[in-house]
């Protein structure tokens, strides 16, 4: 297993990363959707739509959305008309907001949310046609373990679909992006939500494997045909791989 810097939201707390991530997301839950739209200028909604289009040709019936948060990706995946979409997360406050969202959208018959650990999924092997995650795998305590669980619950021939923040490579945009993430995001976060959450966002993105480094990890845990689709000059990345 590859050794990586251990980045946590609250470095002063004597809690493991999983416990800190749960605390952080429950703390910012009521501002989470608003902050996503604000900090990405609503481009995050476009990234989700592009990601879902990649699995549309496979007509998935059973979908699992890992680290679903308030359920934005689950709602988008429900537009594929699957039999079911199950979203799981460890942050119960986020899930409660997600339940209100799907009820308002009339999706309660299709989308279900369950409080569960992404690295210990409570599902049998070979249960889903697509396993997805949007901006969630970066928060795993152990990346390979979480990805391995996603592989385990996928059916043979199924696909993993991951949307994650990444680091632009091209200058001068790379420098502008770094300034935005290091200074502007935490400052805005401090005005509307919790500064530490958006400082953690920058720190965790800066050390997270991007592009080929991440597709290599997908291959290492058992996936095949791993592909990388950079978004918005590399600010985010979509990954698609097959079991």
Describe this structure in words.
The protein has a single domain, classed as Vaccinia Virus protein VP39 (Rossmann fold). The chain has eight helices and seven strands, in the order ααβαβαββαβαααββ. Helices cover 45% and strands 21% of the residues. A hairpin with a 4-residue loop joins strand 6 and strand 7 (236-242). It has helices at residues 17-40, 43-55, 72-77, 92-104, 143-153, 173-192, 195-207, 212-220; strands spanning 62-66, 84-89, 111-115, 128-134, 154-165, 224-231, 236-242. The model has no long low-confidence stretch (mean pLDDT 93). Helix 1 crosses helix 4 (92-104) and helix 6 runs antiparallel to helix 7 (195-207). By secondary structure, the chain is α/β, with parallel strands linked by helices. The longest helix is centred in the N-terminal third of the chain and has 24 residues, at 17-40.
Largest sheet: 7 strands, mixed
Structural class: alpha/beta
Order of helices and strands: HHEHEHEEHEHHHEE
* Helix share, percent: 40-55%
Shape: globular
* Number of separate structural domains: 1
Strand content: 15-25%
The Rg value, from CA coordinates, equals 17 Å
For CATH, the homologous superfamily is named as: Vaccinia Virus protein VP39
Output the strand order for the largest sheet: 3-2-1-4-5-7-6
Provide the CATH architecture.
Answer: 3-Layer(aba) Sandwich
